[in-house]
Amino acid sequence: LHSPEYVAMVRGTQSLGKVELQALSGKYDTVYFLTSLSICARMFPGATLQLVDAVLTGTAHNGLALVRPPGHHSQRTAANGFCVFNNVAIAAEYAKQKHGLHRILIVDWDVHHGQGTQYIFEDDPSVLYFSWHRYEHGRFWPYLRESDADEVGRGHGRGFTVNLPWNQVGMGNADYVAAFLHVLLPLAFEFDPELVLISAGFDSVIGDPEGQMRVTPECFAHLTQLLLVLARGRVCAVLEGGYHLELLAESVCMTVQALLGDPAPPLLGAMVPCGSALESIQRVRAAQAPHWTSLQHQEVSRPPTWRRAWGPEGRPPVLPPGSKAPRGGPQVP
């Protein structure tokens, strides 16, 4: 997936001195090469591929790969944003070539746009790439026009790149769940993936200094459960970003507990998405509607103030194919 020249360059960093590594790092955006990085960068894509093999052969139902460095900013010929090799993109290509899959869903819930993954698959209709990310009308890194909602892919891949840009900070559980219910899940049921790969960044968790969002760790358990209804439960999560170490660990644990089938803890408080979130959701639905039947018949408007009700075990609703998602989550007056 990465060019031979780029792979050789990364391999060659093992023999470089400190000054040479600093000079090489300066050629890329927010990348820091170390002598040991080459070994780690080549080892962890292998761990991700082992997870894919285990899930697709039935050895494991699902799983999570704890990898470093992360990968979703890495492009075919360039490191970017702390990322050297694109672990999830490599896994998707591997699943197609070795296991013969034809439909793979990548869900990138990191707070940053995974532009590397988007560039790699933007003309490929066999990979549906979904990313929500802090955008602020292009004023947040990576500052790309192509991170906006109207960037839907190219050529045969039009409609298979789905960007949901958050244009203000402070998005919380209700906003993220609404995005799943009103954008991702309708598309996912229509796409009918054979494998779900999660670029599992946790820098949108409340308290993370980089993301400045307000998602609680428990929300990631709910999001994971919603994805487990797809692809016969064949879900592989791969660690991306996260800058609050304690809450990063807690969020990872919540994700793993959901993968293991444990009930998700209740999400407390009113599950009412904010106006900015609804505007972003409606924009991406409008951009994608020409490409997806499931988005052509429903407007998303701000619901009245309802109390949330996920049920006694904290399990989110399961949407059957073709069904309309409830507004703002399950509701009781």
Automatic annotation (TrEMBL):
Its main location: nucleus. It is found in: Nucleus. Residues 2-259 form the Histone deacetylase domain. Residues 292-333 are annotated as: Disordered. Keywords: Hydrolase, Nucleus. One of its GO terms (cellular component) is nucleus. GO terms for molecular function: deacetylase activity; hydrolase activity. InterPro entries: HDACs, His_deacetylse_dom, His_deacetylse_dom_sf, Ureohydrolase_dom_sf. One of its GO terms (biological process) is epigenetic regulation of gene expression. Pfam families: Hist_deacetyl. Belongs to the histone deacetylase family. HD type 2 subfamily. PANTHER family: HISTONE DEACETYLASE HDAC1-RELATED, POLYAMINE DEACETYLASE HDAC10. This is Histone deacetylase 10. It comes from Loxodonta africana.
